[in-house]
Structure formats: C-alpha cells, structure tokens
C-alpha cells in the first residue's frame, strides 16, 4: 500500500514539474519575442511610435527575411510591406480603419509612387514620378467587381496641368487648356485607349484663348473632316473640307469650301490625285476666277489654264501655260472684246504674271494699237504705236525700263 502512495506522489510530482517547466518556457519565449521585436524595430521610430500607442505588432518573414510588419488595435490596422526591411525600403503602407483605407506605395528611392484613399466604393488616387512629382490624379469607382476610372482625371507635366480626361463621357473626352487654372479651354477631343496611351479618334473641338469656337474636326481611321470658324461669337463657318492620312502625312482630298465672314461662298478647291481645281466667286455667286493646277515633279505647280471673269460673267483674262509655266495671256474688256495678248511667265510662288516678249494691245474694234517688247517683266526694246488708220506712227526705244528714244514716223 505504501508503495502505491509513493508511486502516485512521484507521478504527481513529475506532472507538476513538467507543467511548471512548460509555463516557464512559454513565458520565456514571449519575453524573447518581445526582446526580438524591440531589437528588430529599435531603429524604426515610426514603428516604435505606433507600438507605444498600444498597437500590437506581428511580423511576417520569407526565407528569414522580414517582408511585412502588421500593427493593429481595435478597428485600426497598419501594414508595412518592404523591398528590404534591413535598409528600411518600404514598398507599401496600408492604413485601414472603420471608415477609410489609405494606401501608399513607394519607389526604391523612397519617393512616393502612388497614394489612394478608399471610402464607400470610391478610390481617389494620385500617381507620382520617381522624382516625387505629381503626374496623374483622379478617381476610381468600384463597379462590377472592378475599379473603374470615373469623372475627371488630371495629367501634369513639370508640375503644371497638361490636360484632363473625362471618363464620365462615352467616348472619353480629353480637355486641354490655355491656363494653369483650367478656366480657358483650348480643345476638347474624343480619345480611345491604346498601347501608346490615349489616342484621338472621333470629334475634336478647338477654341481660341477668348473662348471662341475656331474648329471642329472629326477623325475616323485615316479620314479627317474639318470645319473652321471665324473667331467671333457668331460661329460663322470659314472653311470646310477633308483630309486623308497617307504615309503619316495629312493630305487634303475632295472638295473644300471657303466662306466670307457673312457666310457667303467665296472659293471652292477640289483636290484630286493629279490636279487641283480652284474656283472663286463674287458675293452674288457669279464665278470670279477658275483654274486647274497640275502635278509636276510630285508637286502641284503647273497652272495650265486660268480664267478671270467680270461680275457680269464675261471673261476678263485667260492665261494658258505649258508645264514650265510659260505661255500667253489674253485680256478682254467688259464687253468681251480682246484688249491685250502677249507672252508671259507665271511665278506661282508669288502669284505674279511676268511679261517676257511681245505684248499687243487692240482697240474696241479689234484694230492693233500698240506692240510692246518686254524682258523679264520690264519694258525693253521697241514699242510700236499705231494710228487710227492702222499705220505705224511712233516708235519708242526702252532699255531695261528706261525710255531712251522716241521716233515720230508721221512728222
């Protein structure tokens, strides 16, 4: 019997010893953990400050490297994630409380990369360059389990607002401004998302600095239609036409119309592959001028035929040129009677006719009255003058525009 009591006492003693030893180990382990944490965060004042504010702290490791510090109390949690904990290179800081979540993401140079404020399914975001300069700011809305851009987003360059994108519009609209405060709109255009960012596709509206409408453009694939306006409050059309984008160049195509400030058609230009047809008009609609310009050496520079008209519709002049822009000019009176004919060169760059050789003038009955001689647009050589009997009466001699001699043949 004594042996049995002795055995029970020994067993109880053993369990008591074991229990005491286990509790000591646990307490010792907790003390060591606290010591470890204090040692870990001793140079991290921002962590020490939070722990002193009664935040509990837990540590996540990966391959013996600290990757995350989690601090929490009541309805608040702060999570730090690290590129390199030993160097205090923070990847992100996430602050969660009952009403709002704040997210901060950092570059490896410690500058802020992204900042988010999340509340009631709305996320307000800011994005920064590696130099810490604000580049983009805007708002997301949580829709269909996705964060979706909504409202106006601001895009900056060198700390100055460059443009805004309005994601509440379909298609998205891009707004650019003349001023930093975005009070003076420069243009509004439709954009689509692409690999290179947001590209113009659709309508573009342009304004001058005073807010007057100056152009409306519509771009679809490689075609662009454009309407230009006089810069006034009346928004009167100045011109309208179309472009095609060929080999990254904007080329005028088809019919272009040009108007006066009173809205009256003033000129039409028709662009074809090998020629351009130009017609101008008087205010009452009668043709004032017409011409066809042909392509030479891949440039439209051959004005083959030009016809000018009086307001009554009668031709006032006809210029016919070869492909070197050399030819003849005929000038008529308002009654349609030939008045002058001569040889000319045409300088299309300055829109000037240059007399080059003989120029003849006639009276209303068609009788020859004068024959001039020109050299490069200047009187040079003999000029012959005829009387009412069609006889040569006077000769004048010019030298580079200077009259040097007169012969009266009837004296």
Output mean pLDDT.
88
* Low-pLDDT residue spans: 1-34
Distance between the termini: 180 Å
Strand content: over 45%
Number of helices: 2
Helix-and-strand structural type: mainly beta
Radius of gyration: 44 Å
Strands, count: 30
Describe the biggest sheet? 30 strands, antiparallel
Task: Tell me the overall shape.
Answer: rod-shaped
Helical content band: 10-25%
Explain what you see.
- It is built from 2 helices and 30 strands.
- The protein has 411 residues and is mainly beta.
- The protein has a 30-stranded antiparallel beta sheet that branches.
- It is rod-shaped, with a radius of gyration of 44 Å.
- It starts with a helix and ends with a strand.
- The model is unreliable at 1-34 (pLDDT under 50).
Q: What key phrases describe this protein's structure?
A:
mainly beta; 60% strand
How is the secondary structure organized here?
Layout: H1 2-40, H2 45-52, E1 56-62, E2 65-73, E3 76-84, E4 89-96, E5 101-106, E6 112-119, E7 122-128, E8 134-143, E9 146-157, E10 160-166, E11 172-177, E12 185-194, E13 197-207, E14 213-220, E15 223-229, E16 237-246, E17 249-259, E18 265-271, E19 275-281, E20 287-296, E21 299-309, E22 315-321, E23 326-332, E24 338-347, E25 352-362, E26 368-375, E27 378-379, E28 381-386, E29 392-399, E30 402-408
Antiparallel strand pairs: 1-2, 2-3, 3-4, 4-5, 5-6, 6-7, 7-8, 8-9, 9-10, 10-11, 11-12, 12-13, 13-14, 14-15, 15-16, 16-17, 17-18, 18-19, 19-20, 20-21, 21-22, 22-23, 23-24, 24-25, 25-26, 26-27, 26-28, 28-29, 29-30
């Amino acid at each position: 019997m004594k042996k049995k009591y002795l055995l029970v006492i020994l067993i109880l003693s053993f369990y008591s010893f074991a229990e005491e030893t286990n509790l000591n180990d646990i307490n010792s382990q907790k003390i060591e953990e606290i010591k470890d944490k204090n040692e870990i965060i001793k140079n991290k004042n921002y962590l020490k400050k939070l722990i002193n504010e009664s935040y509990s702290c837990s540590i996540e490791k990966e391959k013996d490297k600290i990757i995350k510090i989690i601090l929490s109390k009541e309805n608040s949690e702060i999570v730090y994630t690290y590129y390199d904990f030993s160097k205090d290179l923070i990847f992100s800081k996430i602050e969660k409380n009952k009403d709002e979540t704040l997210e901060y993401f950092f570059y490896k140079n410690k500058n802020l990369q992204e900042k988010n404020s999340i509340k009631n399914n709305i996320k307000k975001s800011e994005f920064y360059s590696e130099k810490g300069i604000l580049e983009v700011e805007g708002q997301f809305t949580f829709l269909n389990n996705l964060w979706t851009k909504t409202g106006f987003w601001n895009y900056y360059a060198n700390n100055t607002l460059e443009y805004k994108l309005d994601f509440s519009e379909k298609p998205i609209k891009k707004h650019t401004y003349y001023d930093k405060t975005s009070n003076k709109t420069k243009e509004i255009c439709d954009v689509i998302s692409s690999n290179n960012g947001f590209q113009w596709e659709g309508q573009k509206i342009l304004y001058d600095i005073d807010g007057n409408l100056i152009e409306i453009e519509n771009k679809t694939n490689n075609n662009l239609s454009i309407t230009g306006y006089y810069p006034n409050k009346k928004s009167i059309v100045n011109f309208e036409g179309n472009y095609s984008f060929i080999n990254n160049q904007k080329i005028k195509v088809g019919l272009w119309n040009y108007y006066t400030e009173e809205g009256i058609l003033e000129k039409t230009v028709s662009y074809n592959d090998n020629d351009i047809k130009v017609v101008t008009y008087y205010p009452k609609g009668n043709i004032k001028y017409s011409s066809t310009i042909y392509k030479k050496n891949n440039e439209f520079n051959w004005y083959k035929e030009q016809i000018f008209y009086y307001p009554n519709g009668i031709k006032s002049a006809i210029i016919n040129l070869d492909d070197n822009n050399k030819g003849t000019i005929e000038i008529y009176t308002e009654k349609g009677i030939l008045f002058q004919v001569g040889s000319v060169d045409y300088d299309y760059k300055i829109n000037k006719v240059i007399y080059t050789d003989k120029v003849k003038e006639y009276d209303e009955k068609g009788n020859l009255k004068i024959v001039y001689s020109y050299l490069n647009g200047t009187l040079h050589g003999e000029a012959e003058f005829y009387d009412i009997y069609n006889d040569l009466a006077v000769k004048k001699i010019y030298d580079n525009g200077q009259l040097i001699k007169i012969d009266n043949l009837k004296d």
